[in-house]
Amino acid sequence: MSDTLKIGNVEIARTAALAPMAGVADRAYRLMCKKYGAAYVVSEMVSAKGICYSDRKTAELCTVTDEERPMAIQLFGSEPEFMAEAVKIVLEYRPDIIDINMGCPVPKVVGTGAGSALMKDIKLAAAVTEAAVKAAGDTPVTVKIRSGWSRDSINATYLAWALEASGAAAITVHGRTRDMFYSGQSDNSVINAVKSAVSIPVIGNGDVTDLKTCREMYEQTGCDLVMIGRGSYGNPFLFREIEAGLSGTAYKSPSLEEKMQVMLEHIRLILELSEKCEELAMHEARKHAAWYMNGYYGSAKFRGRCYQLSSYAEAEALAQEFIELQRSREINLV
């Protein structure tokens, strides 16, 4: 397969991209994943209507730094006129791509008719997309969808046809229905069906957690790019592992000490980019610290302690204590 794909005029390496994740994939998270090889990143989703009403968080959510490129800003909304106006506003932040969320399963989003609710109204989904495309000019517009609203209404292929006809430059497909949320197993056959149905690039998303599942996604779906969400939790190294594996170069897994160093680097970045005081910014860092400790002896107890962190110094001390626990266990096992 080719080493790159193009979405509009945006060239992206065919390794793995970082999915948009509300409350997780903020700028610090995106920068960490880019550092370790993410080919493409997407912002947390931003309300189109909120932007039009000068939401105070617009600048924070829409800022695109050169280190993050290629990067998309993701919008959600169900009214074509608001979507068009929001696109014009976010163009000022110079995103490489504008992405529309038609896959979010969260009730407060779906309740407004946005997110995965648009999968129930293909005509409206097409109108929202067409309005965004017209407003975006030369900036490509992509759409992220799920396999369907429910398991008895899987309609991703029909929606994909309509989105392509409306001018979408690429489509990302998460292989779960809305009613599955994040449970069960992602269905690669739906992604494959969409890929077979449209001529624009298709990005596959769902259950990619390592090099093996990334390869399987490419092989089973024929997709143009793989996108990773929850598999990157506490594991930005995954992008480097995939990059190395797909290019046939050697990859060495990070040691526990290296993981803790990266965890602390991630926390420092959160603190640096946050406008909040250290204690409040640490609240945002807690879940990330806990994710870096997954899979080790005694990690459940330490993850619990991560959710009590209120300063960087405490995080440093906890990371050192965690390392010492693993070392003592290794000595005892010998």
Structure overview:
With 334 residues, the protein is of the alpha/beta class. It has 14 helices and 11 strands. Strands 3, 4, 5, 6, 7, 8, 9, 10 and 11 form a 9-stranded parallel β-sheet that branches. A two-stranded antiparallel sheet has the order 1-2. Strand 10 (202-205), helix 9 (211-221) and strand 11 form a beta-alpha-beta unit. It is globular. The N and C termini lie far apart (46 Å).
The portion of residues assigned to helices is 40-55%
Question: Can you write the helix and strand succession as a string?
Answer: EEEHEEHHEHEHHEHEHEHEHHHHH
Let me know the CATH homologous superfamily of the largest domain: Aldolase class I
User: How many strand segments?
Assistant: 11
**What would you call the structural class?**
alpha/beta
Number of domains: 2
Q: What is the mean pLDDT?
A: 96
Largest sheet: number of strands, sense, barrel closure: 9 strands, parallel
Low-confidence stretches: none
Termini, distance in Å? 46 Å
How big is the Rg? 20 Å
- What's the overall geometry? globular
Number of helices: 14
- Predict the CATH topology of the largest domain: TIM Barrel
Provide the CATH top-level class of the largest domain. Answer: Alpha Beta
- In CATH, the architecture of the largest domain is Alpha-Beta Barrel
Proportion of beta-strand residues: 15-25%
Write the layout of secondary structure elements.
Elements: E1 4-7, E2 10-13, E3 16-18, H1 27-35, E4 41-42, E5 46-47, H2 48-52, H3 58-62, E6 71-76, H4 80-90, E7 97-102, H5 107-110, H6 122-136, E8 141-148, H7 156-165, E9 170-177, H8 188-197, E10 202-205, H9 211-221, E11 225-228, H10 237-247, H11 256-273, H12 278-292, H13 299-306, H14 312-333
Parallel strand pairs: 3-11, 4-6, 5-6, 6-7, 7-8, 8-9, 9-10, 10-11
Antiparallel strand pairs: 1-2
Helix pairs in contact: 1-11, 4-6, 6-7, 7-8, 11-12, 11-14, 12-13
